Amino acid sequence: MINTQNILSKGQKIGEKYTVTFFLKKGSYAETYRVKDPEGKTKLLKLFSFSKLDRTQFDENSNILEIEVLKKINHPNLVKYRDSGELLLKNQKYAFVILDFISGETLADKMKRDNTLNLYETKDIISGVLNGLNYLHHLENPIIHNDITNLNIMTDLSGKVTVPRIIDLGYARYISQSNKDFLKDGLNPFYQANESFNKIFSVQSDVFSVGALYYHLLEGLPPWFVEISKYKADIIRLEDAVLEERKKTLKFERNIDELTKQSITKALQPNTENRFKSVKEFIQAINGELEIQQLSEAKEVSKPKIREIKNGQGFNAIAGMQELKETIQLDVIDALNDKKRYAEYGLTIPNGMLLYGPPGCGKTFFAERMAEEIGFNFYQIKPSDIQSKFVNASQENIKKLFDEAREHAPSIIFIDELDAVVPNRNNTGVNHMNTSVVNEFLAQTNNCGDDGVFIIGATNRPNSIDPAILRAGRLDKVIYLPPPDFEARELMFKLYLENRPREVGLDYSALSTATENYVSSDIKFLCDEASRKALKLKSRISKEILLETIERNKPSISLKELHGYITLRAQMEGLSENTNNRSRIGF
After folding, report:
1. Is the model's pLDDT at 225 over the cut of 50?
2. Which residues contact 19 (CB under 8 A, 6 or more apart)?
3. Which DSSP symbol is given to 228?
4. For residue 229, what are the CA distances in angstroms to 46, 47, 235, 325?
5. What is the pLDDT at residue 307?
6. Measured between alpha carbons, how far is 336 from 380 in angstroms, rounded to an integer?
7. Which end of the chain is more exposed for a tag (fewer CB within 10 A), N or C?
């Protein structure tokens, strides 16, 4: 049955050459179709309705600007023009353009499936997009795309190597055109440069959009994202909200190397004076060939602060993990508290330990409880507390941290996401600035236990850490924190529900059985969700409510990921045995 809403129908001949085979999508002024050319090859047809085009979409000769631009371009990272013409259908005038069909998907479609992309795949895509834009920007009459988003980049899967291709040049304008010719209606505000809200477009506007794409692919949301539903009826309020949000510091949630962060941050500068001047600069920056200049005056290195650890329950607050707690007590805590006795037995003072395992298994919680148990001064550090965009500042931050910890010894330094601080220097994505930071960290951790400083590193990606940090005299202990076992899950439910209104005789064993492969943070979430449900029902938290909550919420870590960590654990334990020739105490 033919969809009468579509302008063209299956089997219809276009320009005596092309046969319509499939309707793809409808836009505000155009429709796209899959067609066959005279040789039977699949092509893409874009059909423009003259009556729906804005006046800014025509050139000085009254030709459709997008088609004229497509005729002039030829680059492997751009959509390929083949033919064009005009049609008269039911007394309505249309224009069409024939393009090479790209066998693949848009980045938006890919993100619906994967949510985020890995760093290496993203860099390849961004490099291709920048190469395509570099070509457009260096034409005799340079072209600004103006609409780089995840919707307008396709991954061409037809060859052996995936090739990103820029599509949809509906908003493209020659740089020589007036700002009055700029059409901003329908643009994605999260990808628009600040100046484009005022209809100003330039090479640097495209730079900003690529920076937004880079961030979106890695983080899963556009930069400075705000909820748009309440602004749908008022585009001005939405633009104001976006611009206001951009006054805040750009945040990165994922483990991303410093060079990539610097490049994205530079590209996304609201002020064009601080942005990359060209896509060529952007390309050089992500390849480590261009040192990114300071965006503002260097800030004084902040003094690390001791985090006050209140008198708590220590290890008693940790459900399960009894064997691990006993090992830590013997090998670490007692050794730090009774150095003389351990020295009599020829046992050295430990320098630190690495906690690794799936996300949500309580690495940070364990470190905090250990600080309570041992009573040392506690420094909790994130990568952002150490890393800086200024040359040598990151090394200075590390030195200052260790100087402070030594001054207030005995101290524990807990560093979350250690892989972001000391990445493997053999990886190709690590630049000279990262290498200098790793070298400084290694120097500071050498036998720091003698100075009363104990290091706890935590990571979900131990294989991304520089192996030198795991050698004897640095992080002596490498400890895997798995998802909680049956007993630990049962104790967690008791712990989290202890002071909440619950039914008498709650079957914790059944709850533990139902949550195999759930991590610690999952169980905390389940208890909170069940509590909300009980509050809404004005009832006590029951077994039925908890089991319904468990049924609705699957584990945050997939079985495949868990199996990956089991394999990784075997590799790490093998590495530890091969690289540490000293006697292993309790491990």
Report:
1. yes
2. 11, 12, 13, 35, 36
3. -
4. 30, 31, 11, 49
5. 54
6. 19
7. N
